[in-house]
């Protein structure tokens, strides 16, 4: 009878012990949701803090990583733990580099995290591109407005370019190798930049250029000192020049001589200059006697030639008194009246008067003024 009771008591004790352990186990076990970079799983843990859970799951975090709630937070059943790893993001924005740490998993998410927009910008990776834990290097060329002055007009351009040259290419504005661009093509762009293009063109031309002749004087003792005679007329020469002309926006700015050659030489003009001293003359060129010398020869000369001893009339009359050459020679004159002094011309006029009277001149009546 006692044996049965003992067995029963032991059995009851064992059952009781098992019941207490089950209650304790249930009380210590917690169900936790763990999200690591968006990857979520449910786990059971006996840990008492978030750090215990991470250690148990071999999730290592660094100072820049984000853990929510913090690693020291106490665990409760049903807790949710989020871990976001920090990633290095190197941004090169319009040529200027900066480094950041982000927990976002995409480029777009990183921009939002950093408070950046860059609307219309050109990116070296798409906005939806993922960012691995090793990080990402991203080039950003922001949208800029610039004015391009060219070909007589101004073109407004929106470009996601880094340099002036890239912007012109995007705008499909063509350039020749010798065009002048200001600022230079390699200049980094800023919003509002003004670009000026000057079109440069060169042409090569062949020109005919006159070569002037020289005037050579030769002494001639057969002529009086106040006389000259053309021995040979001068002739203009000719040379060919090849020149290169540079234009900027249609305006000629420079001419460079490339080559030249003489086609025809100039021929010098030769003029004989008298050296013979003219004999002295009396009064108005010599007296012929009588009333002839007292006539008003100055009034006649003034009417006939304006008092000019070198006057030439196209109808073949010369000098103070407008002699024809035949009449001049008939009274002993030599050469052309205009090659003789005023006194000599007056002397010959007096001889003509004695020979033929005042009717030889249309102004003859002025002799009696």
Automatic annotation (TrEMBL):
Residues 197-277 form the G5 domain. CDD domains: RPF (cd13925). InterPro entries: DUF348 (IPR007137), G5_dom (IPR011098), Lysozyme-like_dom_sf (IPR023346), Resuscitation_pf_RpfB (IPR051933), RPF (IPR010618). Keywords: Hydrolase, Signal. PANTHER family: CELL WALL-BINDING PROTEIN YOCH, RESUSCITATION-PROMOTING FACTOR RPFB. Belongs to the transglycosylase family. Rpf subfamily. It holds the Pfam family G5. It comes from the Bacteria. The keyword Signal applies. This is Ubiquitin-like domain-containing protein. SUPFAM superfamilies: Lysozyme-like. It comes from Tenggerimyces flavus.
